[in-house]
Design goal:
By secondary structure, the chain is α+β, with helices and mostly antiparallel strands. It has six helices and five strands, in the order H-H-H-E-H-E-E-H-E-E-H. A hairpin with a 4-residue loop joins strand 2 and strand 3.
Amino acid sequence: MDMNKVNSTIKRYTSAQSMKDLDVFLDDLPLNVGYNALIAAGIACLMGAGSVWFAAQETEKVSKLHADLMNVQALQPPVPILKYTPVSKDVIKDMSDKIKKTYKGLNIEGGSDGSVTITAQDTDFFPQFLAAISYLQRGGKSWKVMINSLCVGRDCNGSKLSANLQVQMVRFGEPEIKKEDDKKTDKKTDKK
C-alpha cells in the first residue's frame, strides 16, 4: 500500500467539503428515505440499546448470586462418611468361644464375612439365646450387629432357636470431594 494514497484518502475524508457533503446527505435523508423509515430505525436502535442494558443488569445480578452461592458452599463443613467393614473371623471366633463358655447349650458358628449363626436345639435355652445375642451386640467397640434372620419355635428348620447375624465395624471415612472442588483445583494448577 502506498502511503501517498493513504494520506490523500485521509485528507479527502477530513476536509471541509466532506463535512458539507455529510450535512447535505443528512438533510436530504428524510426526503429520500421517508419519515416512517427513520422512526422505525430509531425505535429499533432504542430497543437494541434497551435489551443490551437489560442483559448487562441481569448478568450483574447473576454474577453476584454466583459469588454468594460460592461463599455459602465454602462455609459448609465436610461431612465424614460411615464405612462398614466385616469383623474378622478370628475376632468372631474369640467372641463365640467366650459366649459358648458363658451360655451353655448354644451352638455358635462364625463366617469369614462377619456372619454369625447362633442356634439352640430346644426353646428351654431361650434366655441364654437372647443373652448371647445381646452379648454379641455389645461385644466390640464400634460394632454394628444386624439380624439377617431370627426364628423361634416349631417353624424353624433344624433348631428350635436360630439367629443369623451380620457383625460389622463402623469406621469414619474421608469426606467425599465434590467435583466442583476438583475443577477449582485444576484451574488453580493450570494458572501456575
